[in-house]
User: Fold this.
Amino acid sequence: MLEPLLLISLALLAIAVLGCLYRLLKGPSVPDRIAALDTIGVIMVSIIAILCMLLRTSAYFDIILVIGILTFIGTTAFSKYIERGVVLEDGDNRSSR
Amino acid sequence: METIVQVGEGLIGLLVLAGAAIAVLSVFGMIRFQDVYLRAHAATKSATLSVLFVLAAAFLYFALYLDHISVKLLLGIVFVFLTSPVAGHLNGRAAYRSGVPLWKGSVRDDRKRANEKKTVG
Assistant:
């Protein structure tokens, strides 16, 4: 009874990833693409959670955590990079702006 | 026990389906909106809600069927809930500071007015 629902949800999430891919390829500015990448990562977390339920295994929970952390770090690094041109700033170049 | 399992199954199905539907709606907003800032509004909040729904459904599933209370899944829920708005805010601020223009139908720009007040006063 539950399995068809899970499969339908997987199909819906795949459609959502395709929409994000459209925004990633077309997005007029760089922050658009970053937001699309962030959303793809977040949707990937839910795809893996549904996969865990379908396969009745708890082996993939680590992947959920790792993808969440990597998505956050990637978005942060990209945003810092397009904001100032450096990823890690040393505090001195704030006064020069 | 039988009724508990049935109610739990219905709840899990509802949560998963709601999560997937909210993800699709969020991506629809990301395609249709006109602006980085409007798209951030669609992408950040509803995508977080959909992931929270699906992860809560997975937690319920493993607690109900396999008798496995997963702390890792709870940790994932907390982590996504904490970091997704922060990432959205950083992205929006980077977009504003790197000069991405607002949509021409936007009514007001509070950040610009605050900057002007700071330079005048």
About this structure: Chain A has three helices and no strands. Chain A has one domain: 2-84. Chain A has a mean pLDDT of 87.
